[in-house]
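Reopening this ticket.

The earlier resolution said the output was attached, but the attachment link was broken on my side. Pasting everything inline this time so it's all in one place.
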Amino acid sequence: MYVRWTKRERSLRGEPNGKYALSAKLVECVRVDGKPRQRILCYLGTIREEMRASHYHMVDFWTAASANLAKLDLKKKLQSKIEKDLEQVVARPGKRSRARANALLREITRNLSGANR
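Inline output:
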């Protein structure tokens, strides 16, 4: 089993906008008629490429990935390996990213409340 990443170009009203979304799928190798084939076991999650450093987008991705992995009832060692593979592309949200996100949210809130006066 391994994680397959696919990169899909996003579009705005049917027109490509040069931005991409990354999707993670869990794939296993099987043999069909003696030939190797890959079978998608589970869709894990999607994140916009430019938002991989955004705390809230990381939280959304990891929430979906964790829930989808839990449905598969994998052994701990295999699940840990898959999570490490996912971390190569999308970092787990941590205290530092949460602090940056909260600071940004406070600044935006302050700016909005000042603009409403």
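Reporter confirms the inline version is readable. The CA atoms of residues 3 and 82 lie 7 Å apart. Strands lie at 2-12, 15-32, 35-48.
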